[in-house]
Structures are given as structure tokens and as C-alpha cells.
Amino acid sequence: MDNKTINGFSKLSKKEKINWLSQSFLKDKPEAVNLLSVYWHSDDERQKRHDEFIENPLSNFYLPFAIAPNFKIDQALYAIPMVIEESSVVAAASNAAKFWLDRGGFQTRVISNIKSGQIHLNYSGEPSVLQRFFTEHKTQLTSSVDALSAGMKSRGGGLMDLTLIDESASLKGYFYLDARFKTADAMGANYINSCLESIAQSFNDLAAKFDGFKSEDLPEVVMSILSNYVPECLVRVSVSCPQSSLAQAGLSGEEFAQKFVRAVDIARTNPKRAVTHNKGIMNGVDAVVLATGNDFRAVEAGIHAYACRDGQYRSLSRAKITQGNFEFSMDLPLALGTVGGLTKLHPMVGVAMSILQEPSAEELMKIVAAAGLAQNFAAVRSLVTTGIQKGHMKMHLLNLLSQNNADEPTKIAAVEHFKNNTISARSVADFVASYSANGN
Ligand code: MEV
User: I need a labelling partner for 432 at 20 to 30 A (CA). Which of 38, 196, 234, 303 fits?
Assistant: First the structure.
């Protein structure tokens, strides 16, 4: 066995894990080994909290935590916490928030707040027999979650509905039980999965006793799991103003509005553009989802599936001009929680929730959607006026200077110099080299 594999790794102490890693994969990289412990928190208790989140933790991975102020959402004002590495995102969100603050802000509405999970079945018998079994036992199946649901019910949640779906025309022998839930202020993944497993257990017990099934075609549970496709957990966000108040970058309000609408229509039509357009939305969405300790993989998967719900991947947002009024909006499926999960464990998530004034899950849906629409507005606005590189490279300048090991005086001089010069990797490297060569 070479030393690149190991048994019992999880049982080693953190120092032993790093030691093994340094012998096996980082032999000639002492600086990398050193950094792992440099990034430990100085307070052991705080570090322990982070270590307990996952298996085999070695260190912490920092991302900036910022706020985008001046968001007016319905009648409330927010400073929105964002965790993201991309230099221009927070600047763009702040910019768009300020722009819409003066034009009525963001209007939002939670359209529905239902999540679902499925118990996937194999069944080779007569479909009408399975349907009869389901109808006769539906009450017992649904009441199998009662014990798990007491707390959730008191908060207005619980299992809302259970139906049997026949998909055997698409996949031979495939049926599923579709369970719909409300999960109050929790994202609800654990609650939903526990309920599904409980229903699946009852299903098996009841099916074994049901005399309608022949022993050779007893239905079989393949798996039980929540769905991250949440088209019924939907929030609508919009901004609008008279197009005449959109004049900018040498364009009249009408010209700007028309170019903007055209750009959004292109993203609704062309998947190549739609993916990048939606990526701009996700810049805002993910940053807030991360800052608030929510599951960004679930959110990403659900939103992109929603973006192609009619069979083609399209822009999530829509824009139109109606009688001189510019309207920009989108519907976003978002399963979020403000209790449970990481929300009470990660100290910085606690800070984010405090900044947001301890929102409910529905309020957080609205905030995240507004951040997404703001980001989209900022990106498309740049694209149809100056192009994005100007602002992007301006924000990226400090990263390029750091990559070139510029010291503080060089950075200050560079920021001044590049106010009137084009920023590129090459031009920044040249500037740093010549600035140092000249003895500055
Ligand atoms: C960059 O992170 C995001 C954009 O590409 C989005 C867009 O093109 O709409 C600017």
C-alpha cells in the first residue's frame, strides 16, 4: 500500500491528519502545510464549532463577508449580507439597490411555499390494485408522520397531501408517492426525509398484509427522498418605473429600456445567453444563500431546473415596457430556512440573520430574490451600455496588484494610474514592474 491511501483517517487528530497529508501529498510544499494551521481560529472553542460541521476538517476556508446596503424591499429597508469571492458582485448589487431605492424599490410576493418529496416504487402488478391499496390505506400512511410532525404542525407546517402517481408509461413498473409539505421557517430537508422514510416503512408493512397483491408483484420501495425541484415554493420579485427615468450612459430612458428589454428577450430565446444571464442572477442569490447558511447546491439545482421547465433553458427574468412603464421581474423557486441546519450553528450566519432583522423563511425568500434581480439588473445594464469589463476590471485591479506582489504605495499609485488607463493582466504587471524599477 503506498502512502497515498490510508485506513482510519477520520480517527486521527487534526495534527496527525495534516502530518499524513504533508508526507503523502505536500512533501515539497511546507508553506501549504503551514497555512493549514495558520488559518485555524485562535479561539479553540470557535474552531471546534467549525470542525464539527464536517468530516476530516483540516482548516478554514475564508471567503469575504460583505453587505450591500440600500435595498428597499416592499416597505422595509435592508443591508443584505453577501458571501462571495467575485470582486464586482457586491459593488453591482449595491449600485442596483441604490438605483431602485430612488425608484420605489423592489416589490415581492411569496406565491406559494410548498416543498415535496417522493417515495419511488417498483410495481409490476395491475395498476388499479395499487391504486385501491393506496386509497384504502392513505389515512394510515399519512398518519405515520404524526409523531414526527407535532412541532412542525404547531408552527403551521406538516404533510399537506399524499398522492400516488403512475409513471409506468415512461418507465416500466415505476410509480411514486408524491408527498407535499409545508415546513414553516425551516428548509425542512431533515423533516421531509424523516417523514418519507416513515411513510415508506408503513407502506411496506401495510403492503405485506394487503391481500390484493400477489406475492410476486408486491410493490417495492426503491428510495425515499425530498425533491430539490421546488416550483411550488415560489417568490415573485419586480421593479418598475417610467422608462423616462432610466436615462443613462448617453442613452435616453426609452433607448435604454428598449435595449434592456431586448437583452432579456435574447436570454429568454437563446440558451447560450440564458445560462450566463442566469449566472448573473445566481451571483446575487448564492451570495445571500451562503451568508445565511442555506444549502446553495439545492438552490442552484432547483433554480436551473425551473429555468427549463418548458423544455428549453431560458432566462429566469422578464422585462417589458407597457405604456411607457418599464417592468423587470422574475419568479424564483427558493427553499430556504431561517431556523435549523447551519442557521443557529455558524456564528457568522447568526450575524447575517441579525443584520437582516431575523427574517422568517418567506422574508428571506424575498430578500434573496431581490438580491438576484438587482444583480441581474446591474449586469444587463452594464452589458447594454459600457460593457462589463470596465467595472469588472476596476474591481479586479486589487487582485491583480496582489498577484504581482505590489506593496501598499504601488497599489495607491496604480489605483490612480488606472483611473484613466485600461486595466488588463499585462498592463497591471507592467505598471508594477516599472513602478518598482523606478525606485518608487
Ligand atoms: C459575471 O459573473 C456575470 C455576468 O456574466 C452576467 C451576465 O452576463 O448577465 C456579467
Answer: 38
Closest residue to atom 3 of ligand 1, CA basis: 280
Report yes or no: 336 and 294 within 8 Å, Cβ to Cβ: yes
pTM strictly above 0.90: yes
What is the rounded CA–CA span in Å between residue 286 and residue 311? 24
Distance 255 CA to ligand 1 centre (A): 21
Tell me 421's DSSP state: S
Give distance in angstroms: CA of 270 to centre of ligand 1.
15
Is residue 411 a contact partner of residue 398, using CB atoms and an 8 Å limit? yes
Atom 7 in ligand 1: which residue has the minimum CA distance?
277
The packing angle between helices 89-101 and 271-291, to 10°, is 90
Best residue among 87, 260, 264, 388 to mutate for probing ligand 1's pocket (most ligand atoms within 8 Å of CB) is 388
For 99-108, 290-299, 427-436, which range has the lowest pLDDT when averaged over its residues? 427-436
Ligand 1 site, residue 264, Cβ cutoff 6 A: no
CATH fold label, 115-226: Alpha-Beta Plaits (3.30.70)
Helix (H) or strand (E) holding 166: strand 158-166
Query: What confidence score (pLDDT) does residue 343 get?
Result: 82
Topology adopted by domain 66-112+231-386: 3.90.770
